[in-house]
């Protein structure tokens, strides 16, 4: 008799049956419609976002944890479990959903006007309209307060100038949520968000190519050259960095679960492989070193899943704090990339091919480890929570 890693931890018993059914449904659809194409998408360095987004919308995955405007209104834990399955397929697919729902849609839903919500959210929920989120700049990632993108008044309009970098979905997006410094407050207090249709004159979104990670994802810049917007384009409720940082926390929460999915997929592939692969006339699974590696990886995977579920409960209760999200993001991505690398050792030379998912996941997790806050940023957030002293400077 054999057990899966999650069975050893009794994970199914900790998940609401409806959420578990949703998770299995998502896994099944991805197995049919996404996984057969991942090798080709990854090798080509592209993904058919326009074709894929409506399929994901039909499943209710786009903005699924938001209420109203065509969104499913699920629990945070259900959203996390969906992210787990999406990233078990590929981090790029989970990124598509996260950027659409937890960044662009959440920003409009949380900080936007009713007009902005009605204009964009229903079409984004179905995948008809694609969104992106413009915060990171070429020289300002971990320190968004230093952003150089500027928004200045010109009568009743706003004029935006600047460049955003590493923006998922940007080359194919219909709308961008762009954050810019204004003269309406000192320092980061002057940061405001704008809902920017990408067909507005002055916007270009060149694609970033030659990536070694997140290849089944479309990444680009957002270049703003005297982009004129009406006053109604501003997100009225967002002032200062609290606006974009709240969106990042939504996306980080999805990563907490998503990283577990990538690690689980690697471990499942490794367990199957070592059972079939014969070394010195017996299965690789029958060696003590192999079993020690599998045991250690299972332990870390199970702990990561338990942490994710606990954070999901806290979020559903409305009590989840940013530093707790940092705990989850730091631990789960760090452990996931360790599991992916260890699984590669069990697969030997076969582990470097796209026939198996482990090195693809490992490469993707290099990006996941960096975006939505690097490991070092999350260490400092946890350190500040413990000591009461910020150490970012």
Automatic annotation (TrEMBL):
UniProt GO MF annotations? fatty-acyl-CoA binding; flavin adenine dinucleotide binding; glutaryl-CoA dehydrogenase activity
The UniProt record lists the keyword Flavoprotein: yes
List, alphabetically, the SUPFAM superfamilies matched. Acyl-CoA dehydrogenase C-terminal domain-like, Acyl-CoA dehydrogenase NM domain-like
Identify the Gene3D superfamilies for this entry: Acyl-CoA dehydrogenase/oxidase, N-terminal domain (1.10.540.10), Butyryl-CoA Dehydrogenase, subunit A, domain 2 (2.40.110.10), Butyryl-CoA Dehydrogenase, subunit A, domain 3 (1.20.140.10)
Q: Which domain of life is it from?
A: Bacteria
Residue ranges of every copy of the Acyl-CoA oxidase/dehydrogenase middle domain listed in the record: 132-225
The question of whether Cell membrane is a record keyword is answered with no
User: Which residues belong to the signal peptide in this entry?
Assistant: none
Q: Which cofactor does the UniProt annotation name? A: FAD
Q: Which GO terms describe its biological process?
A: fatty acid beta-oxidation using acyl-CoA dehydrogenase; fatty-acyl-CoA biosynthetic process
Q: Enumerate the InterPro entries for this protein.
A: Acyl-CoA_Oxase/DH_mid-dom, Acyl-CoA_Oxase/DH_mid-dom_sf, AcylCo_DH-like_C, AcylCo_DH/oxidase_C, AcylCoA_DH/ox_N, AcylCoA_DH/ox_N_sf, AcylCoA_DH/oxidase_NM_dom_sf, Glutaryl-CoA_DH_mitochondrial
The Acyl-CoA dehydrogenase/oxidase N-terminal domain covers which part of the protein?
17-128
Write down the EC number: 1.3.8.6
**What is this protein's name?**
Glutaryl-CoA dehydrogenase
Its ancestry begins with: Bacteria, Bacillati, Actinomycetota, Actinomycetes, Micrococcales
């Amino acid at each position: 008799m054999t057990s899966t890693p999650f069975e050893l931890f009794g994970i199914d018993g900790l998940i609401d049956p409806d959420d578990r059914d949703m998770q299995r449904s998502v896994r099944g659809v991805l197995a049919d419609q996404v996984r057969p194409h991942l090798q080709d998408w990854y090798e080509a360095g592209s993904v058919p976002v326009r074709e894929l987004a409506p399929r994901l919308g039909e499943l209710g995955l786009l903005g699924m944890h938001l209420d109203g405007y065509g969104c499913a209104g699920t629990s945070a834990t259900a959203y996390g479990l969906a992210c787990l399955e999406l990233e078990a397929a590929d981090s790029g697919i989970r990124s598509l959903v996260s950027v659409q729902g937890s960044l662009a849609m959440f920003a409009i839903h949380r900080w936007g006007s009713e007009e902005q919500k009605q204009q964009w959210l229903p079409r984004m929920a179905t995948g008809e309209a694609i969104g992106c989120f413009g915060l990171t700049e070429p020289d300002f990632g971990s320190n968004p307060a230093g952003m150089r993108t500027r928004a200045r008044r010109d009568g009743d309009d706003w004029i935006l100038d600047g460049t955003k970098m590493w923006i998922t979905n940007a080359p194919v997006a219909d709308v961008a949520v762009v954050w810019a410094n204004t003269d309406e407050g000192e320092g980061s207090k002057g940061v405001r968000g704008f809902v920017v249709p990408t067909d507005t004159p002055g916007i270009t979104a060149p694609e970033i190519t030659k990536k070694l990670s997140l290849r089944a994802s479309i990444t680009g810049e957002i270049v703003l050259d005297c982009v004129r917007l009406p006053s109604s384009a501003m997100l009225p409720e967002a002032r200062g960095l609290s606006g974009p940082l709240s969106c990042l926390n939504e996306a980080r929460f999805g990563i907490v679960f998503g990283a577990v999915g990538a690690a689980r997929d690697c471990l499942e592939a490794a367990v199957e492989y070592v059972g079939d692969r014969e070394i010195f006339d017996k299965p690789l699974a029958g060696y003590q070193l192999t079993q020690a590696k599998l045991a250690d990886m299972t332990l870390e995977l199970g702990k990561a899943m338990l942490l994710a579920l606990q954070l999901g409960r806290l979020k559903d209760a409305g009590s989840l704090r940013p530093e707790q999200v940092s705990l989850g993001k730091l631990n789960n991505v760090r452990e996931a990339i360790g599991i992916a690398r260890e699984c590669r050792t069990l697969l030997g030379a076969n582990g470097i091919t796209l026939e198996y998912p482990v090195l693809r996941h490992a490469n993707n997790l290099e990006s996941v480890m960096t975006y939505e806050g690097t490991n070092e940023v999350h260490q400092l957030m946890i350190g500040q929570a413990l000591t009461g002293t910020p150490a970012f400077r």
